[in-house]
Specification:
The structure is a single chain. This protein is of the alpha+beta class. It folds into 4 domains: 214 residues, Histidine kinase-like ATPase, C-terminal domain (Heat Shock Protein 90, 2-Layer Sandwich); 247 residues, no CATH class; 86 residues; 190 residues, Histidine kinase-like ATPase, C-terminal domain (Heat Shock Protein 90, 2-Layer Sandwich). 44% of the residues lie in helices and 17% in strands. The strands form 5 sheets. Strands 5-4-3-6-2-1-7-8 form an 8-stranded mixed β-sheet. An 8-stranded mixed β-sheet has the order 11-12-10-9-15-18-16-17. A 5-stranded mixed β-sheet has the order 20-22-23-25-24. Strand 11 and strand 12 form a beta hairpin. Its EC number is 2.7.13.3. One of its GO terms (biological process) is phosphorelay signal transduction system. This is histidine kinase.
Length: 817
Amino acid sequence: MSKYHFDITPHIVKQLGEQLVSDEITALLELIKNSYDADASYVSIEINATGKYEKKQLFYQAHKGFIVVEDDGFGMSEETIMKSWLIISYSKKRAMKEAKETTPGGRTPLGDKGLGRLSTQRLADICEIFTNEEDKKGTHIAFNWKDFEQEEALGEVSVQAESYEPQKKKGTTLVLANLNHSEVWEGKNLEKFKGQVSQIISPYKENRPFEVYLKINGINIDLDKSNEELRDIAISRFDFNFDGKVINLSGKTKLSKFIGNNREDFHNYVEIDNGKKFFEFLKKKYKDLKFLSDKNFFLGFERKFEFDKDIGGLEIYEGERANPGAFTGKIDEFTYDNWLSNDENIKEIFGKLSSYRDFAQSQAGIKLFRNGFAVKPFGIDGDDWLRLRESQTTGGSYYPLRPANVIGYIAIDEGVNNNLKDKTDREGLVSNPYSRNFFTLSFFIKDEINRYQEGIRRAYNDFLKTYKTESRGIKTVSQAFKQLKETKFQTEEVIQEFNDAVSTTGKAISSSKQLVNKTKNNLLFATDQEKEMGSQIEEILTELESVQSTLFKLNKVILKANKLNEVIDILEPKIKILEDQLNNFSELASLGLITESVSHEFASIADRLSEKASFYSHKLENKKLTESDIYVLIEYINTTVNGLKVQLRHLDPALKYNREKKTSFRLSKFLNEEKDYYRNRFEKLDIEFLVETVDDFSIQVNRGKLTQIIDNLLNNSEYWLKERKKIEKDFQPKIFIKIEAPWIYVYDNGFGVAPAVENQIFEPFVTTKPKGQGRGLGLFIIQQLIDSSGCSIALEPVKNEHNRKFMFALNLSNITI
């Protein structure tokens, strides 16, 4: 029976390598990782598309083109070569990673699938290895991948071997000869490859675990210099790190960020005092902004977010939030606007703007580096894994991060982030709770940067509006229309005088021409005095003609000014309609949020009713339906109908036919009437809902508007209480409303508001919820609704046991009766 055994054709091995190693850059990266895993302090790569390797005596002398990968790692013994290179898919590293062991140098191996050797066949036909452990004899082996297509059994493929006396203490030299695709390393393809290398091997020195030297066709490629020079030109720079508990995010922005599409406004209102007045304006709105003394950067910020308290939507695994482990990152933002063509740094480093743009865009993208090596496809060749394109507006806003305008990375570590595993084909991460939470954190960081960018954009627009208004004296739309009407009346008053002036000027020009012609035609008989007067009249004639030309131009302006009433008649009603629409926006948007909540409840009620109907139908079919069952079903239907009525009663005041009604009511009565709705909703979530009346009072307001305000505040509490309950099973969530004339206080026993956003909490699109679970509009809409009634809302300065603000205070004094 022993003659029966499995074997494999060598061709399968070759096919396996072709399928698992997608391109030359991936193949080269696998070999560089081998050097890293060998505790090398450097790896040197030399590529020659057409030459012959002559530094060492090869078994295969005849070849064209070669790649040499050399390192000073711990090298390999003959036994290691037999296993690591000649037994396909054998991997000692796999066992090390499973046992969480490290190399003698403390590195967690990057390779674990035994595929590094297969990547060599992607690059060349011939593979020769020279290797020796410290102070030991060296081993030289060689084989030809072409033999894998000719032999019938894997064991019959020829492998040549010999020992040698090494010249260096330890290390490995891999020589790949007879390149498969030599055109990859030449001409335009070579330039493309250089860009790919910078994408695959981190160009950030601080993020590279060891030195990488690259020489292609005799030219040394400096991975550091070009990147450092490019980073100096960035208009914004963001740094972040997650230590496993807290995300620390900082950023700084150059004044030139605000040039945008209007250089004139930038010069007149910002550049003139180096942004000092603008920063004072910003500081009033965003307390955490810092004025930077750095000569290159204008302003900066630092914000912190706690993993367990501030970030929603994280997955729970084995009773706790799946923590992907610590990571760091940087993002640099660039602009390619034409004003840069005069920048001295651009001229000195790149020569011209187009060269800078081409180089920067070839590096563009936010990469994911594991121990200094890129994880494909993240940020490579235009991959937009952080969905930066979604942040771009149709209006062409230049403030959010855009894929073609950023260069950066997120750095993870094989040991620290051992739950973030590469897919077998090296194209992405294996999907699991840890990787999904890693992406949630990455999106959160991106969104926070964009919130900062959008915040300073809005502040800049407000700043321009404020200071333009101050200089022009127009503060409202009605003032603008008033000035237009005054201009129209003033035009009517001077139009006759203007026409008279045009006529008089024409007559003066005609008379002057006659006098000049008369003098010129009678020069022989004219006296010296007449000649002198003729010369002076000719000068006056020139001035008069210039005045006439200006008057003709002014005539067009006056004709247009005379039609301002027509413009006002068209614009005024349209702007009035627009203002009404804007006033309705907050109410409609808030109604939409309420409707979402109510429709979810309707769906739950419908599902439960359907389930009951199915249960009793099954009983009826089996003739097991009793009279008692019928009574139970009828009672359940009655309860369900009453529940639907509660939902509709809650929604009804906010509907259009009721939105304009203002009624008077006591707050305690209003909240007690709404209590059924909230209790029904919160009981299912095990949330206790408490209303305390300290000092009751009455108000006159649209009931639906107040419903919307309270609802949005409670929706916010509900979300964060549910998030805390996910990780604290014994947590008893509570929501409180306290009535104390003329205030209403709404708060809960959750973690409280993240300090990083407490000053912007009422700004639009400010939220720490993930996309799809929050838009950052709820509190903004509440503020708009309250403002429309002359009231206010604020986040109270009092803090909870987590040292966070947590209580919203509504001042209703303007509607108190």
